[in-house]
Specification:
Radius of gyration: 17 Å
Largest sheet: 7 strands, parallel
Low-confidence stretches: none
Strand order of the largest sheet: 3-2-1-4-5-6-7
CATH architecture: 3-Layer(aba) Sandwich
Mean pLDDT: 96
Structural class: alpha/beta
Order of helices and strands: EHEHEHEHEHEHHHE
Number of domains: 1
Number of helices: 8
Bound molecules: NADP nicotinamide-adenine-dinucleotide phosphate
Shape: globular
CATH class: Alpha Beta
Distance between the termini: 37 Å
């Protein structure tokens, strides 16, 4: 893996680092010489596996902090931020990546429960963790990158609640970017199309079906890879994007072009 960005001296927190886009992003930050890396997720074993891959990229084990927490549980954002500051003394970059998907429509009898479940993770936890990060990001003139979705920009059928949560995240990005710009804290998001990660099978969809659908709905004619999203995340988090804030960057194989 080539490290075209350099994050020397920067402490990075990645939520949802045990799988998919978050795992890939953590490994990229490790390869780009970050100074500290906090890996957040529920599955400790998978976080340990990602930690080993980060060490393979040259990041010393003492520069990695694994925190196994359900982000949606009471007090989790506070416990996470306390642990990060206690270990590293600062925070430069927050990657709000943890999220879940799932099918919902207005006809769904479990709409209310699904709304509460997805909103508490995708939106509420992101908001609360960002709130706690802000004082530290102001000190370091750091930045936030949130992993949103094409679903924030175009209403994907039968994904009502997921669409709502991601639309909320884009407004979070734009609102927070306006509030924090005078403090020199940048806030951006990436908005992926369909990416080959376990998210789809976790949400009950067959991988083969997801790939075939992705081939048809993306102008580039294929599903995306986690690495393609990670590269966009690292760009937005880096000094190369020093004049970019409030951006919601599509990484979607041109899919949004087909959504009038
Ligand atoms: N894959 C796509 O097509 C796609 C497209 C657009 C946007 N996205 C977004 O990309 C982000 C990453 O998804 P992915 O595709 O990489 O899926 P993934 O492989 O399923 O990864 C999701 C990550 O979120 C973590 N997570 C889930 N629930 C959590 C909770 N309650 N507390 C803490 N961590 C939790 C998971 O870790 P644990 O299981 O260890 O908790 C895992 O590390 C999500 O926000 C998703 O909405 C994905």
């Amino acid at each position: 893996m080539s490290a075209s960005y350099c994050f020397e001296g920067r402490v990075v927190l990645v939520t949802g680092a045990s799988s998919g886009i978050g795992a890939e992003t953590a490994i990229h930050f490790a390869a780009a010489s970050c100074d500290g890396l906090a890996l957040i997720g529920r599955d400790k074993d998978r976080l340990e596996e990602v930690s080993i891959k980060c060490q393979t990229q040259g990041l010393a084990i003492e520069k990695i902090l694994i925190i196994s927490e359900d982000l949606a549980s009471d007090g989790a954002p506070g416990r996470i931020m306390d642990a990060v500051i206690q270990k590293f003394g600062k925070l430069n970059i927050l990657i709000n990546n943890a999220g879940q998907g799932g099918m919902t429509s207005l006809a769904d009898p479990e709409l209310s429960q699904k709304f509460d479940h997805l909103y508490s993770l995708n939106v509420r936890a992101t908001l609360l963790l960002s709130q706690l990060a802000v004082p530290h990001l102001i000190e370091t003139k750091g930045n936030i990158v949130t992993v949103s979705s094409i679903c924030a920009k175009a209403a994907v059928p039968n994904m009502l609640v997921y669409n709502l949560t991601k639309a909320a995240l884009d407004y979070f990005t734009e609102s927070a970017a306006r509030c924090l710009a005078t403090k020199q804290v940048r806030v951006n998001s990436v908005n992926p199309g369909s990416i080959a990660t376990p998210l789809h099978t976790r949400a009950g969809r067959e991988e083969k079906v997801v790939r075939e659908l992705a081939r048809r709905i993306h102008p580039l004619g294929r599903i995306g890879e986690s690495e393609e999203v990670s590269r966009a995340i690292l760009f937005l988090a880096s000094d190369h994007a020093s004049f970019t804030t409030g951006e919601t960057l599509s990484v979607d194989g041109g899919r949004f072009l087909l959504c009038p």
